[in-house]
Amino acid sequence: MSAWGSCSTGWPISPPLCRICGWRGSCRVRTSDRLAALSNYLMYLHYVDGITDAMMYDAHAAYAQMLGTLPQFSHASHHRDKLRIGYLSPNMTDHIVLNFAVQLFSAYDRARFSVHLYDVGGQHSEVTDWVAGMADGYEDLSKCRPTGGGGTHPCRWDRHPL
């Protein structure tokens, strides 16, 4: 694994970078927390001077190993009369970006488009209900978990095709 070492998570790291276990082999962090931290780490690597292609590859390979095998999306053709558009948001409440996006949800051509909102944030207010009423569909995905994850119930991702 190149010139870098690895902590007990298996992440390719340089000595000052593993803040989770201090590179002492003592990580007791949930997998979902490790995945989130490593995802951020992979992003930050793009801004660090001196990171070689091999180092970047090793870091991404460790992330892929933690993810394991993921189910692939079906690319089967779906004949629909309307183009389905989905908006995924971590905050369908009173949020500055929602103030601009509400125009997209309220003024689309309903004869040509079917708009669906997917909420992954877990925040809910009367604004959420108001915005959900503008679209053809609303799904709260905040409690869903991928296979083996830490949410409260599994999602049937095939129920939410776009």
Task: Catalogue the unreliable spans.
Answer: 19-26
What is the succession of H and E elements?
Answer: EEHHEHEHEEE
Number of helical stretches of at least 4 residues: 4
Q: Termini distance?
A: 39 Å
Estimate the helix proportion, in percent. 25-40%
Strand content: 15-25%
Question: What would you report as the Rg, rounded to the nearest angstrom?
Answer: 20 Å
Sheet with most strands: strand arrangement: 3-4-5
Residue-averaged pLDDT, rounded? 76
Task: Describe the fold and architecture.
- A hairpin with a 5-residue loop joins strand 1 (5-6) and strand 2.
- This protein starts with a strand and ends in an 8-residue tail after the last strand.
- It contains four helices and seven strands.
- It is of the alpha/beta class.
- It has a three-stranded parallel β-sheet with strand order 3-4-5, with no helix packed on it. It has a two-stranded antiparallel sheet with strand order 1-2.
- The longest helix is centred in the N-terminal third of the chain and has 15 residues, at 31-45.
- Helix 1 runs antiparallel to helix 2.
Summarize the SSE layout with pairings.
Layout: E1 5-6, E2 12-13, H1 31-45, H2 53-67, E3 83-89, H3 96-106, E4 113-119, H4 126-132, E5 137-140, E6 144-145, E7 153-154
Parallel strand pairs: 3-4, 4-5, 6-7
Antiparallel strand pairs: 1-2
Salient structural properties:
alpha/beta; 3-stranded parallel sheet; two-stranded antiparallel sheet; 4 helices
What's the short story on this structure?
The protein is an alpha/beta fold and 162 residues long. It is built from four helices and seven strands, in the order ββααβαβαβββ.
